[in-house]
Each structure stands twice: as structure tokens, then as C-alpha cells.
Amino acid sequence: MFLIRRYLFIKILIISGNPINDNSSTNLYKKRILKELSKENELTVITYSYNKKDIRYTESDIEYIEYGYKNLKNQFINYIMKKIKNNQSKNEKSKKNMQKGKKENKINFFKSDKKKIYGSLTYWIRKVVKSINLNDYDLIMSVSYPPVSHKLAYDLFKNYDNNIDWIQIWFEPWDLKLTNELSNKIKAEENKFFELADHIFYMNPLFYEKKTNEFKQYANKIHLLDLPINIDEKSKRTNLSKRKSVGYFGSYFTYNRNIIPLYEAMKDLVKFDNYIIGNSNIDLKNEDNLLIKDRIPYAELKRYEQQVSILVVISNHKIYSNLIPGKIYEYSSTYKNILFILDGEEKSKERIKKYFSDFNRFTFCENNKKSIKNELKKIANNYYDRDIINKPIKRFDVKNIVGEITKYF
């Protein structure tokens, strides 16, 4: 049985609260989806303006409309200062204390900003709502992080009387960054968004499971999507070196990832060429068989990835255990061996292993030196505990991911 789309070519309003030009992993996957969508649909992408001088700024091949807000930060400061002034007047504070309050407020602007759900972006929402005519579109799609994307979509719906569909895409759940102070307010906002939405997609199986349990009344609207990949045919090329090579390419800050067991295992594997490349808050030393480098340009990084025979991914630990590294999807687009080192809470590890084991694509081990060394040696000798298929996972192909979205159009 084939699903028939209601429209062959539709006009879609895309809302991205995170600037398209921000060089983040979320934007990488977001832009893949948008490029594929644009092949058969007319997209209008709304995004927040971004400072071109920022180190994370990158040119985008996605056309977009950029909405900034001149003096946005100052407007928000003035709003807070007005409240301080009113409160101080009520309490008959001295002029000296008032001046002190103004100074402290400027210094603590960002701290004050975080105490509000949307902070200064409240003004951005107001501006865009006044600039958009929702009647010009057949569908609205809001993409987070940040959740301000969904807030803007919600406010647009409240301002227009129409029957177009609303699709939400969540790369991360809102409550990943919750504080006790904001928890109840955010849950109430989530409920409003879910109630009005037609379809809600989570790009993580653990978050999908969590949200369908939390919001059982909307479970029929909530769907699971995997992160989209582009199949890497270049990785078919065999590494001509007789020595096996292992590469870890990504950040390894201690607050969410423990690189030390892999580092120690690599030092012992003297017959391997080993690489650890990425940002961190710790210093690791080079060895004769181990190259350590900070973050490097994307093109250079791809060259290193192409030359190694084994790619390594380390899952997050502590409170980030439910966050699945995007690298596991990226590497599944290749024909290379992949070692997935599991870390974090036991329940999260079990669920992650169960989900990805079904693809028969990854070798798993615990995040300790002995386990890592054993599995790397097995892979190097083409010995596996179970059948492993070193081919791209077609289910993750961006064409299939977008196909899962468009069947609800």
C-alpha cells in the first residue's frame, strides 16, 4: 500500500531559532533535511541573524531570511532595569543603591537572561510574528534546538485563523537543559506546543521513548527519526598501509566524555597508527604511535577520517548519557569498521546498545582500557563476536529520513 501525499508541491515555512550559519552538528543535520525537502517543495527559511565575525560562522548553501533585532540586548536590559527601578522606588531605595543595581544588572545580563524561558529572544519572536503572513504557506515546520523555534510557530498560529499543519522537529528535548526553577513553566509550554502540533519528531530513540511516556495523550502524534546521513562512497577505498590505524575525531571535554581509557589503550597498541583529534579541557601527550591534535578545519579532518581503518565513537557519561553522539550516525555512512565505546548510566547504555545492535553495523565495548584493547585487536584481525556488516545503513540516508517526514504532508 502506498501513501499519497495531499500536495505534490507545497509551500513550507521553516523556523530555525538557531542561526543557519552556526557551525554546529545540529545545523549540519538540519541543512541536510532542508536541502532534500527543497527538491520537491518551496521553502521559506526564517532564522535569527548571526555575527559574521563569530568563529563558528560558516557560509550556508541554504537560502534563508534573516531576522535580527537592532539593539535587542539593550532593549532586554532596559526592560529589566525598569523593573529594578520600579521595585526600588516602591522600597524607597537610595539613589546610590539604584545606581549599584543598574551596574550589577549590566554585568549579570546573561545570568538574568537565563532565568527566563526565552530571554531576549522574546523580542525577536514579536518582530517576526508581525512580519510573517501565515496564510502564504501550506505547512509550517519548526526545528529546535532552541525551543524558541516552536514558540514562534505557536504565536503565529495564535495570530492567524487558518488550518495549515504544524510539524515540530526536536533534535534535543527541552528538559535536557531544565533547572528546577523553570521546570514547571517549561512543561506547561511543551504541553501547549504538543496540543497544537499535528506531528512531532524526535531525533533520538531515548528521547522519543521518554516523551511518549510523559505525554501519553499526544503519543499518536510523536514519531521517531534518525539523524540523516549522506552515503560516503569514498570510504570504499582500502587503506593501503599494512599497519592498522585507529581514529577518534571529536571533542572530549571531561564533563561529558572520558577519553583516558582509549588514550591508554592506544599507547599500548604500538603496531597501530592512532589519532585523537578534537577540542578538550585536558592535555594529552603525543606518543610514537599516537598523534594528538586540537580541532582542525573540516576538510583536513575528513582526510584523517579517510585514512584510518577503524573509527571510534565514545558515548556520553553523567547527566548526558541520553545524548547519542552524532558521530555514530556519521560513521554509519561509511564502509569502515566502527567501535562504539559505551559509557554513562547503565540504563542508558543498555538502551543505546539495544537500539544500535539491530543494525549489525557496530562493535561495542565498555569504556575501560582492557575492553577497548581487546575489541580493537579483534577488529584488526577481522574477528567479530557476531556478524558485522561494514556497509552504510541505508535507513539513515537523508532521502529516507525526509521520506518519513513527507508522508505526513
UniProtKB/TrEMBL annotation:
Gene3D superfamilies: Glycogen Phosphorylase B (3.40.50.2000). This is Uncharacterized protein. SUPFAM superfamilies: UDP-Glycosyltransferase/glycogen phosphorylase. It comes from the Bacteria.
